[in-house]
Amino acid sequence: MPATALKTINPEPLDSLGCLTSLHKALADSLRLQILRLLKNESFGVLELCRILDIRQSALSHHLKILLTAKLVSTRREGNSIFYRRAFLSEEDCFIDIKKSVFDGIESLPVSIDQRKKIKQIQLERAQLSLKFFNRNADKFREKQGLIVEHPHYASSLHDVITGLGLGADASVLEVGPGEGQLLEELASRFNNVTALDNSREMLEKSTDAMAKAGHSHVNFMLGDTAVARKNNLTSDLVIFDMVLHHISSPAKTFKDVAVMLKPSGFLLVVDLCNHDQDWVRESCGDLWLGFDEGDLDHWASKAGLEAQQSSYLGLRNGFQIQFRTFKKTNERKFIA
User: Fold this and answer.
1) Residue 281, CA distances (Å) to 35, 75, 132, 247, 297 in order
2) Which tens digits make up the pLDDT trace of 144-154?
3) How far, in Å, CA of 206 to CA of 177, rounded?
4) Average pLDDT of the segment spanning 315-322
5) Edge-first strand listing for the sheet containing 219-223
6) pLDDT score at 136
7) Is the CB of residue 29 less than 8 Å from the CB of residue 64?
8) Which of 55, 66, 220, 336 could form a disulfide with 195 if both were Cys (CB 3.0 to 4.6 A apart)?
9) What is residue 191's predicted lDDT score, i.e. its pLDDT?
10) Beta-carbon neighbour count of residue 227 at 10 Å?
11) Interatomic CA distance for residues 233 and 323, integer angstroms
């Protein structure tokens, strides 16, 4: 029987064999396995991966293309840069068991000390880029933020989400990156134990002044990021990132920090932009990430031992869309970096 006739009668097996061949080809290389290990939680740009792996861009692009063809990685555009992350596993994928087995095996392998140092340096450079922006624009923060969205535009929706969590006045609440204290003031009015965390001294001073003017003397202020709060054994019933996550160098690591700090059955609330292509916000607003896909947040949460709860979305007239996502701590887990 001619090959064309065979394809006409039953194309699925041949298609599956082709996909299976591409999958095994992609996995039959130690460098590509290293790439998949590095992309366990994080997403990296091509040039960042070149630095970590000490490889030429042309050679790396060849390997990434093979991984992409095998649907082991996926991409997202961040302005002029392409970022890669490990593809999410789908129950509809007929090779999900193979991929899951490989991913589980890769995750048990350690990342070399040299690569860890390079990853930390990249994360530090990202964080410094964001911090320099806020230190330089502390007096113009509300004006800059207003280019995308102003707090009053979504305040009532955010209020409803917090109310829906059913936390009492004695709950401990942490807001990361409180800015000028617009949300912090409401939190201080509702809860007796509130902490404001910011890695910008200038921005933290602004929120401190705002709470003093509002007469809230019970708010605690901490300089640093979630890693600092975690080292200080800070625990909370609720951690909130209100239009902040897109300024953070490593959202995946931040989710893990939060999972450790949350008390049993505690909540993480993320308010942020949905994925968009408005690259001008990098320079104008200090954004490191152009919003987030729902799947990215779910993936980071799952890896940190947090369970996705409710989701709601709010469209803005300027084309941006805000997502309100809540996650709940369900169990204690130990993590492999």
Assistant:
1) 29, 20, 15, 11, 21
2) 555 667 788 88
3) 11
4) 74
5) 219-223, 193-198, 172-176, 236-242, 262-273, 321-329, 306-315
6) 60
7) no
8) 220
9) 97
10) 14
11) 29
The reported pTM is 0.71
Alpha-carbon distance of 27 to 249, in angstroms, equals 29
CB 157 within 8 A of CB 324: yes
Which of 292, 205, 285 is closest to 241 using CA atoms? 292
C-beta neighbour count of 4 within 10 angstroms: 8
Say yes or no: 107 and 255 in one domain.
no
Residues 164 and 281 grouped into a single domain = yes
* pLDDT (tens digit per residue) in 223-239: 999 999 999 999 999 99
CATH number of domain containing 261:
3.40.50.150
175-196: average pLDDT: 95
Provide the number of structural domains found in the chain. Answer: 2
Q: Is residue 280 part of a domain?
A: yes
Any domain includes 254: yes
